[in-house]
Design brief:
elongated, single chain, three-stranded antiparallel sheet, 3 strands, mainly alpha
């Protein structure tokens, strides 16, 4: 009988990827083609990447964007031992997806919609994965690729659509909390009148920034924790009320500081210190939620039959 090991598929004996010199033996042409396509893709998307980087460094609402590709790469690396063995390229489907991404970019440029040009990076990367790795590799890399959507700023119209309702919600809820605490607060549009002081809830204070950032973080937590799908869905959905409550507490504390400390301290807290404590506070809320849920719902375990 022949040696069965000769017919074993790649990575079957050891599923962990070895990126050493032996890995590239017999794959020189594929590696050269992948390198050329990577350089061409980088050249093609260079203006788009420049827009994203400027948004990350100049818009505090999307300052988390620089961490998104790093997290996606780390998530892929952590899954390297689950890389599908014997993956077969799917060039037809891959080039079709690349053509779709190119069409999205052209359409976005024609109507001056920068978001389409930026989001087209996702189907483009997925198409490259199909061309070189096929559907098994795309399923393996699907979650990290989809997570890259969080590095793309929201469309301006969508920000405007969400911004004003969130401003009104933050204003009304904060005023209600202040009144419940016995403080002289009155809501007037998107401002809170506290005695002779007017606390304006501008667009930057609507809570949209916290909502986007914490939703991104919650999604990252769902991708790394080993919990049932129901728990992960709860973590993801709870990001919305936690982010909103955290922003409301920020406004309430600012109003209390105006009343009982000083306007200078309140302004410093509202614009500087509050930005640092909001995320840790949101994480505390998330931890408390999971702590309560672990005690409310008990896993049903099989018990031995009584004899």
């Amino acid at each position: 009988m022949g040696d069965r090991r000769a017919f074993a598929p790649p990575f079957a004996a050891n599923p962990r990827i070895n990126l050493g010199p032996r890995f590239w033996v017999g794959r020189e042409r594929s590696a050269a083609a992948a390198l050329l396509i990577a350089l061409a893709s980088l050249w093609s998307f260079w203006p788009t990447l420049g827009q994203l980087v400027r948004a990350w460094f100049h818009d505090s609402q999307y300052s988390h964007g620089i961490l998104v590709p790093l997290f996606s790469f780390g998530l892929l690396w952590s899954r390297r031992d689950r890389f599908p063995a014997g993956a077969r390229p799917a060039p037809v489907s891959g080039f079709a997806l690349l053509a779709f991404a190119a069409a999205v970019r052209v359409f976005g440029g024609a109507i001056y919609f920068a978001w389409l040009d930026q989001i087209a990076l996702l189907p483009f990367l997925a198409g490259l994965v199909l061309v070189f790795g096929g559907w098994p590799v795309l399923r393996w890399a699907a979650a990290p690729l989809l997570f890259l959507a969080y590095m793309v700023p929201l469309p301006y119209r969508f920000e405007v659509l969400l911004g004003f309702p969130l401003q009104r919600l933050a204003t009304d809820a904060s005023t209600y909390v202040l009144q419940t605490l016995g403080q002289p607060a009155i809501a007037e549009g998107t401002a809170i009148l506290i005695r002779d002081f007017k606390l304006s809830i501008v667009k930057a204070c609507s809570g949209l920034s916290m909502l986007v950032t914490f939703f991104t973080f919650s999604t990252a937590v769902c991708l790394v924790v080993k919990k049932p799908v129901s728990d992960k869905l709860l973590i993801l959905l709870s990001a919305i009320p936690i982010a909103l409550v955290t922003n409301i507490l920020r406004i309430v504390l600012t109003g209390l500081m105006h009343l009982h400390v000083s306007s200078e301290s309140a302004n410093a807290f509202f614009h500087d210190a509050a930005g640092w404590f909001m995320m840790p506070l949101a994480l505390v809320f998330l931890w408390a939620e999971l702590w309560v849920l672990r005690r409310l719902f008990v896993d049903a375990r099989a018990r031995p039959a009584l004899r």
